[in-house]
Amino acid sequence: MKVVQLGWLTGTALTVIAGLSPAHAQTAPEADAASPAGESEIVVTGSRIQRSGFDAPTPTTVIGEAELSLGNRPSIAQVLNDAPQFRPTASPTTNAGGTSSGVSTADMRGLGAVRTLTLLNGQRFSGAADLNTVPQSLIKRVDVVTGGASAAWGSGAVAGVVNIILDDDLTGWRMGVQTGLSSRGDGARYGADIAWGTDFAGGRGHFMVAGDYMKESGILSRKDRPNLEAGLYKPAGGSLQLVRDPNSTQVYNGGSVLSGLGAPYGLVFNPDGSIVPFPFGSSTNGATTVGGGGQNTYDYVAVSAPYERINAFTRASYDLTDSLELWAQFSFHRMTGDYALFPETAADITTLIRPDNAFLTQANRDRLAAAGVAGPFLLGRYLDDVGPDRMLSFDYNRRNLEGAIGLEGSFGDGWRYKAYYDHGEIRLNQRINNQRIKTRFANGVDSVLVGGTPTCRINADATTANDDPTCVPINLFGNGNISDAAAAWAFGGSHLIATIKLDAAGASLSGQPFATWAGPVDIAVGTDVRWEKQVTNYVDPLSQANALSVLNSSATNGSFNVKEAFAEVNVPLLDVSDVARLEINGAARYSDYSTSGGIWSWKTGGTLRLVNDLLLRAVYSRDIRSPSITEYFLTRSVGIGTVVDPYRGDAVQGNVTVYGGGNRNLTPEISHTLTLGGSYSPHYIPGLRLSVDYYDIDIDNVITSIPAQTLLKQCHDNAPSDPTCGGIIVRKPNGEIETISNTIRNLANYNTQGLDIEASYRTALGNGNLSFRLLANHVFHLKVDGTDVAGIVGGETAFSTPKWRGTATVAFDNEDFGANLRVRHVAGGFYNVTQPGVPPLVDGRNGSRTYVDVGAQFKAGPFTLFANINNLFDRDPPLTPYITPNYDVIGRYVSGGVKLRF
Fold first, then answer.
1. Which of 117, 272, 748, 897 could form a disulfide with 157 if both were Cys (CB 3.0 to 4.6 A apart)?
2. Pairing between β-strand 519-539 and β-strand 256-258 as defined by DSSP bridges
3. Are 83 and 807 in contact (CB under 8 A)?
4. DSSP string across 306-371
5. DSSP secondary structure, 89-106, as one string
6. pTM score above 0.70
């Protein structure tokens, strides 16, 4: 077998050998010497340049077959999240309570998934925003380019590139089934996959087809994981601290009696509707009690979102000539889910309970009067007894259809060309059910007795002009007393159907036109064209009328296109055998966006290899990220709020209209990235490779939205003499604010610096092979508009990032047996950012966590039986109010299955 390394090879430069795990990888020179001629070649790529034996400036980490199977993760995104360069920003455990439920993305450096470009076989694809779309059973390896690469690959490659390589040459059958369960008896998972590939037409053609199925039941209760029922609490006379089970005295299972301003009276309704004193916990201050009988919204939020996933993939290729291949592929993906999110609260100034309410018994009126509750009051309770799901529920169906066709060929002396066209469509169909219809709910709650029959007040007086004869009275006292008729009348759901389309085409040419005194010069040139479009197919009438209480669906319609041309060159300047080899590399790309015009991205760098063992590298690049469809065209939203106006001596002003939404005037983000590092492969220790790389990523014009108050402060800080802030603020003649335009803007700056460290070693042991691999990442800082969040590990701080993450794996493998031990370490840190003038949390530092995973494989002919235990010692996460992207929240998880290949 011939093994070739092309382009930006990994700083730890593992080259995957077909049929072996990455634990058995060799460096290119070793592999070339040992490989028999005529076998298939494997190419590890990181750029458009294709030249055997070139180690380029930007480091690339290769995740091969063995790493892909570690921990038996259910999606490729969750495999990537185990690598220390990635932050699990979007996963089933971090999106368990929102409309991105179950989505899994790649977020390198924790800078946001939109700043990591994900490719499939080197091409853009519509499923990049959710890697569940990729058929995991067909993945051969993943090349992770950890540095800016927009000049080579285009917009979005700010933090790096994830290139997922499929096994396009699969021959024979591949089947598998698996299951898994947490040690607490929840989180059940079931999956199966099947694939078949064959040659035809005397070997000139190849056909393959595959299918995957996965079903996760999720973890819907936090009760067995007490550290996940935590929150912030400040005792009377004390300091803010994290505690277990903080609850609100403003909500109770049957209702908490509140003043018109929301202050608790210390009285609650039992589920049967009787009034009793509030059962306070061990410590109470204001509206919060520790323990007791109050409630917390997060108690209802799932730990892990359930979902059902189906993938199908087929590909055919045919050699039209000995040097020209035609290929076509098609994929289908569907992701569905339906589960309760969390309850909304009934406490609203529009739903005051009046003394003559139809469902207040005389005994309860007397009890309230004795406690000094003489007038209308608010009822604080969660609406967790409405409809079949008992609360807000999310029902979604995401479908992705994608097809691509392409040509690959060669001519002359080593020239190669590629061209492709891809079309993908994501169909999103989602509902959020059991929301209050605001006007109906208010009318139904405000009911009185008419002739002994509960009647909506608006229908109690024949002279009332706003009668609604369909109004159904609502009994909020207690729990489970809302009638089915009231629930059907006063509650509804938002419904959105949208289609997101991507058309991408590209062509490239690479080769070696001439040579210098030090060797051949490599060039690559090409063009890319892309069209993106989103169409809203349906928005429900209630949402169009802004009638729902939590989320009214809105339309987002728009499109843009981009035309690009790029070139890349690699020039050897020095080549002294066994002494030194120096090469420089550069690339440039011009992108013309239909929305914002033209922009350049570029990179320049070089490598110096000394005495074969030591490779030094450096690269500096200018990278871009263009705005997304949503950022451009999100429908205008309207809100009303209270702000403090710094232009008028910090005057407090209420009823300010704030307009939000997309912004068609957005321009691309611009990033400058510097990477410096090297790798060391001592010839006197065969199989050992060490690598260290420093990175500095600085992003300007970051596309984001901020709170209206923050926008006001930034306006005043930057333009204190302009009370309109360039037209963003519209003022009344008396100087008060009338409106604020707070759309998505190019507002922020992100900067991060850190180190990537990698080490690997492989050696023969008995009749098998023993391998070690270490990956680590250290973040010096991650600044979001100047605020450093490196070392902030609480999930409630945006971009919270541990300063250290690392994984170390030891594996043994032979023809009959395989075993692996992996240790994952996540550093501790402070829970949140310390604000000036605000005392820090008491015991606000979280300790580090170290997780141990084990796996084993038993092989018998074509069968492989495997088992894995993740988080073997059931290490709990730190105290977490809602989510944590940094620590394991599931606990010990056992999975296993069987694979069959023939």
1. 117
2. unpaired
3. yes
4. -EEEEEEEEEEEEEEETTEEEEEEEEEEEEEEEEE--PPB---GGGPBPTT-TT--HHHHHHHHHT
5. -SSTTTSSSSTTTT----
6. yes
- Whether residue 874 contacts residue 892, with contact meaning beta carbons closer than 8 Å, is answered with yes
Half-sphere exposure of 584 (CA within 13 A, CB side): 7
d(CA 348, CA 383): 12
Spatial CA neighbour of 54 closest among 677, 525, 521, 674: 521
The one-letter code for the residue type at 669 is E
Of the CA atoms within 13 Å of residue 666, those in its CB half-sphere come to: 31
Strands annotated E in 766-839 = 768-784, 787-788, 804-813, 817-826, 829-830
Report the SS3 class of residue 115. Answer: helix
Cβ within 8 Å of residue 611, ≥6 positions away: 578, 579, 580
Nearest to 387 by CA among 533, 492, 467: 492
Read off the pLDDT of each residue in 574-586 and give the average, rounded to a whole number.
94
Q: What is the pLDDT of residues 84-115, one digit of tens each?
A: 999 988 888 888 887 888 889 999 999 999 99
Would you say 640 and 658 are in contact if contact means Cβ atoms under 8 Å apart? yes
What backbone phi and psi angles, to 5 degrees, belong to 714? Answer: -65, -40
Write out the two tokens for 271: 């589920």
The torsion of the CA quartet 259, 264, 269, 271, rounded to 10 degrees, works out to 120
pLDDT of residue 214: 96
Tell me the backbone φ, ψ of residue 369, rounded to 5 degrees. Answer: -65, -40
Tell me the per-residue pLDDT of 637-652, one tens digit each, with 9 for 90 and over.
777 777 889 998 888 8
pLDDT per position as a tens digit, 180-238: 999 999 999 999 999 999 999 999 999 999 999 999 999 998 888 889 988 888 898 88
207 three-state secondary structure: strand
Listed in sequence order, the residues at least 6 apart from 766 whose beta carbon sits closer than 8 Å to its beta carbon are 814
pLDDT for 236: 87
Cβ neighbors of 471 (< 8 A, separation 6 or more) are 440, 443, 444, 456, 458, 459, 489
SS3 460: helix
pLDDT band at residue 484, thresholds of 50, 70 and 90? very high
Please check the confidence at residue 559 and state whether its pLDDT lies above 60: yes
Q: Output the CA–CA distances (angstroms, integers) from residue 39 to 21, 173, 271, 277, 336, in the order listed.
A: 17, 21, 73, 80, 42
3-state secondary structure at position 874: coil
Average pLDDT over residues 132-141: 91
Contact call for residues 132 and 212 (beta carbons, < 8 A): no
Instruction: Report how far residue 116's alpha carbon sits from residue 124's, in angstroms, rounded to the nearest whole number.
Output: 12
Question: Which H or E element spans position 34?
Answer: helix 28-34
Cα 438 from Cα 547, distance rounded (Å) = 6
Which residue shows structure tokens 């319609």? 557
CA 381 to CA 269: how far, in whole Å? 10
Beta strands in 69-138, from DSSP E residues, in sequence order: 116-120
Q: Which long-range contacts (CB under 8 A, 24 or more apart) does 36-43 make?
A: 36/1, 37/2, 38/2, 39/1, 39/2, 40/1, 40/2, 40/169, 41/1, 41/2, 41/3, 41/4, 42/1, 42/3, 42/4, 42/15, 42/16, 42/17, 42/18, 43/4, 43/5, 43/6
- Residue identified by tokens 């927009």 is 150
The Cα 249–Cα 288 span in angstroms is: 6
CB-based burial, 775-802: b 16+ in 10 Å, e otherwise: bbbbbeebbbeeebbbbbbbbebebbbb
Task: Round to whole Å and give the CA distance between 259 and 146.
Answer: 56
The pLDDT of residue 25 is above 60 = no
- Separation CA 387–CA 624 (nearest Å): 47
- Strand-pairing partners, residue 588, are 567, 602
Cα 571 from Cα 584, distance rounded (Å): 5
Check the CA dihedral 148-153-157-162 and report its sign.
negative
Give me the residue label for tokens 């059973």.
137
